[in-house]
Backbone:
């Protein structure tokens, strides 16, 4: 992922956001040593944003699509109240095991339930309403995830979608994933059910409030 802003500014913004506790620092290290794409983790700045959004929205029930090694799930779980719950979906058993091991070291890990399997399939059996949904999985399915999730979010609830600027490739789409994000962004922006604002944080984060 190419930085959209100067790396020094990105680091400065991260440094002035919620500090990363030892569980997150260990998780970053394990993800670097055990996986091929550690840059998929949302990291400190976006993790802080997600945690703030959970708190700000008063969310108690959160759904995530794209667990990976569990950074964003744990960041959001930290923002939930004691009786809050987060369900997170992924297909990858190996990264799920890394996530579970990290969550087990945190007092907030017991708020998280991971479901293994293709997210579109898992979504069929998940009932709403959710207070917040975070979409961060395979880009080709973003529009499908959106369509499956919007009806499951309560009115006034929040949808957050990661990588919507896709390292700037949305301006000159070539690959299927570039085109999928461009199509998704156009769809979300014209969706009358949701008020959207696109943030230029990290790789672009779309926020939508359901009407
Ligand atoms: C960008 S990573 C998620 C990063 C995570 N939010 C974090 O902060 O660590 C995307 C994840 O989507 C998962 N994924 C890809 N295709 C999927 C599918 N069809 N269903 C469920 N998960 C999928 C991948 O296994 C990968 O772990």
Residues:
């Amino acid at each position: 992922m190419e930085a959209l802003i100067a790396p020094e500014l990105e680091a400065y913004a991260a440094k002035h956001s919620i500090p990363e506790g030892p569980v997150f620092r260990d998780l970053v290290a394990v993800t670097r040593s055990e996986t091929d794409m550690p840059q998929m983790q949302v990291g400190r700045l976006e993790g802080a944003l997600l945690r703030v959004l959970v708190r700000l929205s008063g969310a108690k029930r959160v759904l995530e699509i794209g667990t990976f090694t569990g950074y964003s799930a744990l960041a959001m779980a930290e923002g939930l109240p004691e009786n809050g719950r987060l369900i997170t979906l992924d297909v990858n058993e190996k990264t799920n095991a890394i996530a579970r091991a990290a969550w087990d070291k945190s007092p907030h890990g017991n708020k998280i339930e991971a479901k293994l399997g293709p997210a579109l399939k898992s979504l069929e059996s998940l009932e709403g309403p959710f207070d917040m949904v975070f979409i961060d999985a395979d880009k080709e399915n973003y529009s499908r995830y959106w369509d499956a999730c919007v009806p499951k979010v309560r009115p006034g609830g929040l949808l957050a979608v990661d990588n919507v600027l896709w390292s700037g490739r949305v301006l000159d789409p070539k690959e299927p994933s570039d085109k999928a994000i461009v199509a998704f962004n156009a769809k979300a922006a014209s969706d009358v059910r949701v008020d959207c604002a696109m943030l230029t944080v990290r790789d672009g984060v779309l926020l939508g409030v359901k009407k």
